[in-house]
Predict the structure.
Amino acid sequence: MTEKLESIWASLEGAQPVINRRQFVKGGSTVAASTAFAALASNANAGHVPYSNDYGPLVVTPDLQTGLPLLALPEGFTYKSFGWTGYIQDDGLPTPTDHDGMAVVAARNQRIVMVRNHELSRGESSPSSPAYNKRGTYNPEQFGGCTNMLFDTRIGEFLASWNSQGGTIRNCAGGPTPWGTWITCEETFHAWNQPPSGQETFTGYNHGYAFEVKGFGRTNAQPIRGMGRFSHEACAVDVATGIIYQTEDARPSAFYKYVPNGAYGRLNPGKIDGKLYAMVLDGVPRLDTNNGGAPQGTTWKVTWQEVPDPDAKEARCFDQASDAAIISRGEGCWEDQGKIYFVSTDGGLASLGQIFCYDPRRETCTLLFESTDAVGQVDAPDNIAASPRGAILMCEDGGSNPKRLVGLTQDGATFPFAENRMELCNYDLDVINDSFPGARDYWWDTLPEDGSSRSFTSREWAGATFYGRWLFVNIQSPGVTFAITGPWENGAL
């Protein structure tokens, strides 16, 4: 551990947990700091919000850090890039690639800590850099894991980054907790006690779990076995109860809840300590939310069926819950004002994506939004985040090019907020490396030698998370994190 990191961790002593910029009351109701988008759940046809839906036309805008025209944003918005793949971090290790789910988890004064996933498995990183195998490692044979970043919201600067957890497979999404940690999820599944894909022999590590990562300090890299072993995508914690809700990136998949046995905020990794359940709708076995043709605004009554073997030694968790409702490829999941929002990325009659809202107090699930137009609405939403002004921000991951960040307002309208305009040439790599020494990415090996550019505009957005006047978000590859700010009060986000 470097002296600089030890100093950073010491400076964060007393940092407070952060979820969507609001305090929480243990075991009670939350104190909202924003209107959020809870209105969508109570009224699918809510009235017009008292501000415009969008922020106007998107304009290609230079990165304040490198000067390169990487994003298109509404007029008045600016951004800085950070954490480019290969950038040498404060622990001396290069930044891994494939940036994915992310959230702000803790804050002290103007300094905030984010945890960022890297969706990697064995063989998907530089041979010289199995970077995670230095600290907080689960399976030394695997390269997936997390990095942490420190950002100063007052001066608008990234201050540090370091590896925080590793030895896992395809850390896709996850979710922040009210107690100041991040739950990172493996998007993979394999037969019990058999080697996962790409690994020749079984070395004692089963995969398909969730892990808890600290905002600062050391992480133990032990699986939260009670949360189940399946192709995890994202999760969200009910602030009042500490119950964790989870999506599954598989077809078909279920929507799960994990009820820990321990005290609030103690997940007891390494053993099964709690119960796992799958969602059942209207008491109908295998109700199909994708092909049933339910109209937008449909609300179902929710019950739960226990999954007896969360480790899935003999059968998938989905198959153990024979009545579980069918979700087509569960993706993003986010808690806001006591409600849990989750995504089916290819759900709906047009296979363009659905957003649901589960209400734990009423035990209902509502289909809030279903895309029917890939261009005019959204093409395959993935990660989502609640915005401070009452909307949902969707990270697009479909066939669109360029890929977009798309807002969804309380009245169901959609609008593009940002576009990925990354086109890089060999000269650009030198410019990036000036700001981020060591920056490189295995995709860049194929850049044209004649100096012409290669387009990355079709690469997905991931990990959107708001804090104060800042939006943090990733483009998965070549692998870069952005901090965006501007006149939020002019629109719905």
